[in-house]
Amino acid sequence: MRATARAIFDAAVARAHPSGCLKAHLPPAPETGRLILLAAGKAAGSMTALAEAHYLDAGFPPERLLGHAVARHGYETATRHIPMVAAGHPVPDQGSIDSATRALDLAAAATADDLVLVLLSGGGSANWVAPAGALTLAEKQGVNKALLRSGAPIGEMNIVRKRLSRIKGGRLALAAAPARLMTLAISDVPNDEPTAIASGPTVPDPTTLAQAREIVARYRLDLPAAAKALLEDDASETPKPGHPAFANSTFRIIARPSEAIAAAHAAAVAAGYHVHDLGADLEGEARDVASRHAELALSLKQAGKRAAILSGGELTVTLRGQGRGGPNQEYALALAIALGGAPGIVALSGDTDGTDGGGGEASDPAGAVIDATTLARAAALGLDPARSLAENDSTGFFEPLGDLLRTGPTLTNVNDCRVILIEP
């Protein structure tokens, strides 16, 4: 059952990889101008390598191809022509600032004869950071840490981030005008909202400063003075739909969480399971969602069903302790507790990008796997699951059990994939 759960997860990841979906969407090269390729996010390396090969192998002059690509540390890919660098994630670093500055400079130099091709994926918000106003990198890092600890969903985090940036919320499109602009994106957000993918640097932003202020107040975020000043300044508002900067711009999603979950669904059916598909856009506190899923799994078990429960989306964790972990590991830990060692149930929860929370290292686990023996094996090692959950220390719980899901960087990102298998 563990092997089957992993195979279902791997099917979801494979469906989202750029190797299977990018080439069909690449636009024709410009006839006379330059092709300026800008990429950011966890799939930036794989997307850039595939895109540059597509154009160079077709005979596009390399002197007319320029650009810049940035991914989180450990997610770099060897490229032939376009420079590839690494930057911090989830907390930005100097590489994030240098990359955003380079992207803005390249976009601003584009002419009406040029095509600016932007390749976006999850993680782009942290990889492209251009603090506005008097905000420093250290202060921007502090804002990011406060948002991550707040338990706010990613969409609300991005509403705040856009007001503190010179590249997010459509501002890269402002820089690129009047060039033709095309964005190809791998979605890692609920409902595939373009404004939320990498904080929407190339699309108009319908959210408002008032919303950002309300989010800060609701989560009681302690922001630096420079950030507060930006949120109080009407000039920090983002460009809206109808702005002329978007007149020559196209945005297209090439891989979606729903397609990854559909691939997982097909794999589960092929393995002989009746699938309960809960959708690709689940949100909420990881431990609360786990509790509800445990109830469903136990009811299916009691009914004698051979079933698979599948779900995607992006769960959150409100940090109360000082442990290590991420939403997928915390979900798995809470699920194990709620299932109470029920026989015949195996579950896997993992982030399709290959890393789940943790310290921002490429070696962080993608999630965790549980089964009927999890709690008994933990007790034999002196591990207290309730205490680990209270301390947000899911990594510390699963590591000695050998039950961390370790995939390494997958070079794509379409949110989480959770698999629960039930045998009658």
Cα shape: globular
| Helical percentage | 25-40%
* CATH homologous superfamily caption of the largest domain: Glycerate kinase, MOFRL-like N-terminal domain
What CATH architecture of the largest domain would you give? Answer: 3-Layer(aba) Sandwich
Low-pLDDT residue intervals, each spanning 5 or more residues: none
| Domains, number | 2
Q: Which oligomeric form is depicted?
A: single chain
Query: With helices defined by DSSP (H or I, 4 residues minimum), what is the helix count?
Result: 15
Pfam family, one: DUF4147
Protein name: Glycerate kinase
Keywords: Kinase, Transferase
GO molecular function: kinase activity
Structure, explained:
The protein has 424 residues and is of the alpha/beta class. The protein has two domains: 31-255, Glycerate kinase, MOFRL-like N-terminal domain (Rossmann fold), CATH 3.40.50.10180; 258-422, MOFRL domain (glycerate kinase, domain 1, 3-Layer(aba) Sandwich), CATH 3.40.1480.10. It contains 15 helices and twelve strands. It has helices spanning 2-16, 44-57, 94-108, 124-127, 137-150, 154-162, 171-176, 209-218, 225-232, 257-270, 286-302, 327-339, 374-380, 385-390, 394-398, and strands spanning 35-40, 65-72, 84-87, 115-120, 180-186, 249-255, 274-277, 307-311, 345-351, 367-370, 404-405, 416-422. Helix 1 (2-16) runs antiparallel to helix 10, helix 6 (154-162) crosses helix 8 and helix 11 packs across helix 12 (327-339). The longest helix has 17 residues, at 286-302. It holds the Pfam family MOFRL. Residues 308-416 form the MOFRL domain.
